[in-house]
Design goal:
Layout (H helix, E strand, L loop, with lengths): L1 E6 L5 H14 L3 E6 L8 H14 L17 E9 L2 E2 L1 H9 L6 E8 L5 H10 L3 E9 H6 L3 H11 L4
Parallel strand pairs: 1-2, 1-3, 3-5, 5-6
Antiparallel strand pairs: 3-4
Helix pairs in contact: 1-6
Length: 162
């Protein structure tokens, strides 16, 4: 069995969670990781402004330079920070273009404020795969290391063990 963890991260919180999920999955399946990087959103300040504007306009664009083909995996995990109350444009593009119906999908978000169920619902609506589990984490909990049990539960639900 194989799993692919795909994420977009600017501040590092989503990257941290993606890495923790990878470690949890590695106990049971082979795991590859795809970090989506978009030059449009660099450098940090100007990129942040562009990202916020793209979130408001729900912009999508073709993703180039991806390494892994999600059709080769039984499990797919997709993670994004929440920006302007929305899923980031790179992940919107990934979910609408790349997820295949044969994937068992887990979705996660990281955010500064309280978890926003609407973002997860938005992601589920874009996703063609079978959404098995979702997880919403606050950045403060990630920074404090208080998210590990939630990650373990998420991995168990994704693999059908909980």
């Amino acid at each position: 069995m194989r799993a692919l963890v795909v994420f977009y991260s600017r501040s590092g919180a989503t990257e941290t969670v993606a890495d923790d999920i990878r470690e949890g999955l590695l106990r049971f399946v082979h795991v590859d990781v795809e970090w989506i990087r978009i030059k449009r959103y660099e450098p940090f300040f100007i990129g942040s402004v562009r990202l916020i504007l793209d979130c408001f306009s729900k912009s999508k664009f073709p993703l180039v330079g991806l390494t892994y083909d999600p059709t080769k995996y039984q499990y797919l995990v997709v993670g994004t920070p929440v920006w302007s109350g929305s899923c980031t444009p790179p992940i919107q593009s990934y979910l609408t273009e790349m997820v295949c119906p044969s994937n068992k999908v887990g979705l996660f978000t990281t955010q500064s404020g309280d978890p926003n169920e609407e973002v997860i619902e938005e992601m589920e609506n874009m996703c063609n795969g079978e959404t098995r589990c979702t997880m919403m984490l606050k950045r403060a909990d990630i920074k404090a290391g208080n998210h590990h049990q939630e990650v373990d539960d998420f991995v168990g639900r994704l693999l059908g063990m909980k």
